[in-house]
């Protein structure tokens, strides 16, 4: 009897241990996800999709954290160094290589090859290149944007001016469209001494045959000389040296500039604020039919290499990618993909503009990728500022930038 009791207790204990082990096996894993979405008080893609992914998966708990734009890189660097990095993080595309080049991002190339949700061939070349490092894939493009030339149809028609196709035509149009008595400048753009300035000037360097490592080209020198003439002659306001893209486009929306270099993030505001007919055309080239380029904006998503849950984290990336067709109708972001047709907005001007921006994305190139992009970018916008304020001739300003960049990339 005593033996039977022991055997019964032992059997019960073993069964209990088995049940306990099963319970432990079913404990949900926690994924920590960081991005800037939601930091400004309005929902964005990553916070929205993270919540949905959490609700639909009983085996995963998502802890989402929204950070400010100017905090997320340094906060992630600190977290990675201390062993407390998130599982998934979203970076502005030029910042991505800072992490992927140092082994901080998980190589997902092989997982993508087996995925039904993520196909690299469906992404525009520029956004895809921004998540690549040495031929391997370390993330997925989250969304993208680019720039073109907005123009006031009423003013161009009254002046008998066609939308410019070359940079020489852009300057000539700006001269003809300038009307000091009416408070109208021919053009506005952002030549600010920060990343926005580089964002707008780097495509011109690329069109001239250069790139981020080769900035002192004859075409880039010509472009800076042209921009300075426009400012000196009053065809563009002196404020372009300090205005960001938002404020620069505001000058256009108010009717005080006939053309503006800006992007699709402005479409809703423009449709509400601009009291005139407007359109968008591709960025001009140096010559008719010449090489095209454009800025590449937008964010990427990646899994950090320190994650303890790579499979679950990749499932989250797949879910995010499967929602790409919601990016524009719900959040006004352009998908970084060539296989998604944007739905009609109900506003013909916006729909026509979106078609132009999607065409422009075919020519958009990433800033970098390079792990020390911020140093390279500063060299470029410092050169632009020096040339446009008259502190240095364009050739000398770009030569100084080239020397700085050579010290970074070589």
From TrEMBL:
Keyword Signal among UniProt keywords: yes
Localization of this protein: Periplasm
Is Signal given among the entry's keywords?
Answer: yes
Q: Which residues form the signal peptide?
A: 1-25
| Entry keywords, A to Z | Signal
Record's GO cellular component, any one?
periplasmic space
Which Gene3D superfamilies does its entry note?
A: Periplasmic binding protein-like II
What Pfam family is a match for this entry?
A: SBP_bac_1
- Where the protein is mainly located, per its record? periplasm
For this chain, the family text in UniProt reads: Belongs to the bacterial solute-binding protein 1 family.
Protein name (record): Sugar ABC transporter substrate-binding protein
